[in-house]
Amino acid sequence: QVQLVESGGGLVQAGGSLRLSCAASGRIFSSNAMGWYRQALGKQREFVATITSGGSTIYADSVKGRFTISRDNAKNTVYLQMNSLKPEDTAVYYCCYLGSWGQGTQVTVSS
User: In angstroms, rounded to a whole number, what is the distance separating the alpha carbons of residues 26 and 87?
Assistant: First the structure.
């Protein structure tokens, strides 16, 4: 069983930055990828970014160049550094590992 706890969300003005963290516990294997998804009000959950154990990354086109995903395998933690935030980035951000999800953290970007 895997437990994921996200933190770091909040309210920020457009152009600002936030850093999200996701701490994982339980049956965690550093050889597996971890990822971030988001869900805006009234919309479907969408992919944001993923990172493999070796550090390879993939980003959604909408965040490429603005967001950076990273991980600390020793701490079983994955991060999402979000820069140049836009109002359309407003959503609940979820951490994902092998089909398990955290409770999410709200990110609100004001214009």
Answer: 35
Flag residues of the chain having pLDDT under 50.
Answer: none
Give the span between the Cα atoms of 26 and 19, in whole angstroms: 23
pLDDT tens, 62-86?
999 999 999 998 898 999 999 999 9
Q: What is the pLDDT of residue 73?
A: 87
